[in-house]
């Protein structure tokens, strides 16, 4: 039986999604729970990796097990076996060729900033970037609009020595280049927070965090928001701003 | 100089307030921060202990240092030295005879329950009791009213082998007995949560969590809310309900 899980997790206690020896990871914790329930050793595939400290409101994972178990029972058993930092929101039997990563069409992320020099509640700190600058929402919005559409996002991709190896070892339906399409890119205010919501065909490593870091450069008057097209055209990571912290980032939705 | 700090902390990463060797505690972390700033070794005194996993929106601590430092500078330096799980909300120079615990007149706690069998968000789980029962707010309220006024709360005090030793080693202005006065005791609903707010002259070890555990017994129809006076009169811990989990409890205010 081939299963699709929708998961939410608090990234704080994990060293990211991807399984690593002797470190708590979401993928490893989920594999342990599946083994605990079924006795089978499988590695669930996620829609993509999330880095250490990044959260998910709805990550998707797929895996196959041979034991037969009704979906509601698997759902309950998983939530009993998992720590409260990971919750399974839904369990669905899917065709064998459905793959959490290869089948994904669009992904949505949110990034949450607590701006200004107010004191950040310890209960909020793991879920925001407490950014000291006071930020102009209109400028954030103006900057965010420039990345809509199809672009080569090399300037916003991590300078990641492992990336080439990753691309080679992990075949994907997305082209092995840095061109992505952004369908939605907008900021809004919610209570004390500034929230960026972005939907795209896919995202490069650190791409959302590098976009946010660059938008904040604009909103704190260190670059003009209208420099974003020039930064995109440079195809060079050093043209863009710094990487925003992991804590503010949430994977919100994966569409298939 | 004698200082009064008002602190907020996330209890999740700490083994409670009280300093312990080789374990992360709020008191120990604060002492380290003061030492880092001033070079002086002092043990800040809290308004009371909070157990492992219990949070504070406004804990109060006092300590004396010989170095002279303006309050705003001490405030900034402490928040730079402390982890984001502890924030200093205010810093105030106070007379030498002001003591965080001995001078306290009233304390307020809040307890937050997520009732019913809905899935508890991992981002909310450290800050609530995800209680599986569906609870009747009116019954919770009826039960809570019975503890208003001055009572011997022995039935709601932890059966704590260390308690006698603690009472002996920690002189307090409160009588070394189990009589306390409750000024406010009420439940309200806020979004999905049921919230208990209680103000009293002081609280015994586990008292709020034992009250909540007993109110929940009533609200889930296992006892009648009108049994609370009988439970109080028993002066016996085994007459009351179980201890509610630490995660739902917040120290909200200490009045002087």
How would you sum up this structure, described in words?
Two copies of one chain form a homodimer. Chain A is an alpha+beta fold and 256 residues long. Helices cover 23% and strands 28% of the residues of chain A. Chain A is built from six helices and ten strands, in the order E-H-E-E-H-E-E-E-H-E-H-E-E-H-H-E. In chain A, strands 1, 2, 3, 4, 5, 6, 7, 8, 9 and 10 form a ten-stranded mixed beta sheet that branches. In chain A, helix 1 packs across helix 2. The interface between A and B is medium-sized, with 20 and 20 residues.
Short descriptors:
Alpha-Beta Plaits, 2 domains, ten-stranded mixed beta sheet, homodimer, globular, alpha+beta, 256 residues, 10 strands, 23% helix
Question: How are the SSEs placed, and which strands pair?
Answer:
The structure is a homodimer of 256-residue chains.
Chain A: E1 2-9, H1 26-38, E2 45-46, E3 55-64, H2 71-81, E4 86-93, E5 106-115, E6 129-131, H3 137-145, E7 149-152, H4 163-169, E8 179-190, E9 193-200, H5 207-219, H6 228-234, E10 249-255
Parallel strand pairs in A: 3-10, 5-6
Antiparallel strand pairs in A: 1-3, 1-4, 2-3, 5-9, 5-10, 7-8, 8-9
Helix pairs in contact in A: 1-2, 3-5
């Amino acid at each position: 039986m081939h299963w699709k899980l929708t998961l939410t997790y608090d990234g704080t206690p994990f060293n990211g999604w991807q399984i690593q020896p002797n470190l708590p990871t979401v993928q490893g914790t989920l594999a342990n729970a599946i083994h605990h329930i079924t006795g089978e050793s499988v590695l669930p595939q996620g829609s993509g990796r999330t880095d250490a400290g990044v959260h998910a409101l709805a990550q998707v994972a797929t895996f196959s097990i041979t034991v037969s178990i009704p979906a509601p029972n698997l759902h309950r058993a998983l939530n009993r076996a998992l720590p409260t930092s990971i919750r399974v929101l839904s369990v669905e039997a899917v065709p064998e060729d459905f793959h959490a990563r290869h089948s994904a069409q669009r992904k949505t992320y949110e990034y949450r900033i607590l701006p200004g020099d107010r004191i950040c509640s310890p209960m909020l700190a793991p879920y925001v970037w407490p950014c000291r600058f006071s930020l102009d929402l209109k400028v954030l919005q103006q900057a965010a609009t420039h990345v809509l559409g199809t672009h080569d996002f090399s300037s916003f991709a991590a300078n990641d020595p492992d990336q080439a190896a990753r691309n080679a070892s992990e075949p994907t339906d997305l082209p092995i280049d840095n061109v992505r399409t952004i369908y939605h890119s907008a900021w809004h205010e919610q209570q004390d927070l500034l929230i960026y919501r972005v939907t795209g065909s896919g995202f490069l490593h650190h791409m959302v965090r590098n976009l946010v870091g660059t938008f904040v450069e604009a909103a704190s008057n260190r670059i003009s928001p209208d420099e974003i097209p020039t930064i995109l055209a440079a195809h060079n990571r050093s043209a863009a701003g710094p990487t925003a912290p992991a804590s503010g980032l949430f994977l919100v939705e994966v569409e298939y």
